[in-house]
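Worked problem 6 (solution included).
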Amino acid sequence: MKTAIQAGLVALGTLLAGTTVPAAPAGAATTFQRTAGCHSGDFSGRFTLQYESVGFDFRITGGYTASGPYIGDVAGTVSLRIAYRSGSTTHTVYSQTSATTGHTTFTVPTTTTVPLTGMGTAAATFDNGAASCTATVPIS
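Solution. The predicted structure is:
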């Protein structure tokens, strides 16, 4: 019995030695999500950016915000700006200002990218008419 078990284990080991575990496909995207908050008195904002690493770029896939003294109950505006630095030059790749009632979802063109080598940031500026603040996340 002991010999049969040993023989089975040797056969299984031999079978597994020839097996390969598939790796992630070359060029598969890695997804990121970054969140930042800001405050101005009782007013606050929270910004989440979603993006992925593809080739030599970070491709922005979307984002969402929440703002107010009590998240979700204040009307105002939210402005999104996505940019990166190359040397001493700042390049804005996307900007948008929208009315908000406390929650906003951003959809950006699929061509919105930041180079991996650029020092990228995304900033959401919240303004309810009486107070404003800016939440900034790094793109890295």
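Discussion: The chain is about 10% helix and 60% strand.
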